[in-house]
Design brief:
The protein is of the alpha/beta class. Helix content is 35%, strand content 14%. A hairpin with a 5-residue loop joins strand 7 and strand 8. Helix 1 packs across helix 6.
Length: 375
């Protein structure tokens, strides 16, 4: 049964206005940590939606079905807001206000509310009202331009860097910080989480290295972007890949020793011979399969790991031992993270089907009009 769990956010109530991408994932994280997240789904669903029965970003939540464009929809949302600690929405700027559920409307009903806004471009700026997706947001921040080989187009890192790292996680950080402030002062506030802001923030270390002359502003020319021969990926005899991250000297020594090139490898600090070193490493990796190399490096400090697929990852011995993935409702999925010693989080319920929890939410949140509206 979804609802408040035993995690560190037990007792926190969150209203999520249904959207796609980073908003639902942020709300899932709050739900994983024990918050009672009520997702307000719209009739007919939204764009890019997967089958609700398999959308694990809606796990541990409850769902009510409300049409925000109807006469009663906004009023019912405000009824929920009155009893909530947090609201999350991912509309374009101004849409929530036009629907009657913007920050001003909500704070009249609940001055302590933390109002979390998730957008790509932010609430103001020349592009604030423009459509966009992850790839555009990470493109303009410089993050996309760092990824890939120098002689090929930038590599697209799914939607992990923008939507989820630069978006969802920053929204959660902002919401929790604002919640702490609200509890201390009795005053809520608006959290403007823009994916462009969060993604740019993620590049902080790189900007520092660039200012210090330790990072070139081009792909495949640096220590951490594949330009370094002992920090990258190499193909094996069976078409698999191994990931190498032997940056420190002691780890590099172990790496070259186990790889079998310690005596003939050119000096690693000689950048002019990095191409030669890369060729030697690549040639050696091609002599064995991924599994064979995995066995060679397993348990060592060489900082080498097999590149696994999404389906292979749950069976990795370390991840399996930690329970990094879990099975719930017939779906293999990542377990809640991070972990807490006193208030462990858990998957308490599968994906919330739209409108499936109207009765329980109406009862638990004391909003009888919610259930009456459905009749």
């Amino acid at each position: 049964m979804a609802g408040t769990g035993n995690g560190p956010l037990a007792g926190v109530r969150v209203v999520e206005l249904a959207g796609i991408g980073p908003g639902p994932f942020a709300a899932m994280l709050l739900a994983d940590l024990g918050a009672d997240v009520v997702r307000v789904d719209r009739p007919g669903g939204g764009g890019l939606a997967v089958n609700p029965a398999f959308d694990i970003t809606n796990r541990n939540k409850r769902s009510v079905l409300l049409d925000l464009k109807s006469a009663e929809g906004p009023a019912r949302v405000l009824d929920l807001v009155e009893r909530a600690d947090v609201l999350i929405e991912g509309f374009r700027p101004g849409v929530a206000e036009r629907l009657g559920v913007g920050p001003a409307d909500c704070h009249v009903r609940n001055p302590r509310l933390v109002y979390g806004r998730m957008t790509g471009w932010g609430q103001e700026g020349p592009l604030a009202h423009s459509a966009g997706h992850d790839i555009a947001y990470i493109a303009v921040t410089g993050a996309l331009g760092m990824i890939g080989k120098p002689d090929e187009p930038p590599a697209v890192p799914a939607n992990l860097v923008g939507d989820y790292a630069g978006g969802s996680l920053y929204l959660v950080i902002g919401v929790l910080a604002a919640l702490q402030h609200a509890r201390a002062t009795g005053t809520g506030q608006v959290v403007d989480a823009a994916i462009v802001d969060g993604t740019a923030h993620l590049t902080s270390m790189i900007h520092g290295m660039m200012a210090a002359g330790g990072w070139q502003d081009r792909r495949g020319a640096n220590l951490l972007d594949g330009g370094c021969p002992f920090y990258g990926t190499y193909e094996t005899a069976d078409g698999g890949y191994m990931a190498v991250g032997a940056l420190e000297q002691q780890f590099y020594d172990t790496f070259t020793d186990l790889l079998g090139i310690k005596d003939e490898a050119p000096a690693r600090k000689d950048l002019a011979r990095w191409g030669e070193l890369r060729e030697a490493v690549a040639a050696r990796f091609k002599t064995r399969t991924r599994q064979e190399w995995t066995e060679v490096f397993d348990g060592t400090d060489a900082c080498v790991a097999p590149v696994l697929s999404l389906r292979e990852a749950p069976a990795h011995p370390h991840l399996a031992a930690r329970g990094t993935f879990t099975d719930f409702g017939g779906i293999t999925q990542p377990a809640p993270a991070p972990r807490f010693s006193a208030t462990p989080a858990a998957v308490r319920g599968g994906p919330a089907l739209p409108g499936a929890h109207t009765e329980s939410v109406a009862r638990d949140w004391d909003v009888p009009a919610l259930y009456e509206q459905e009749d």
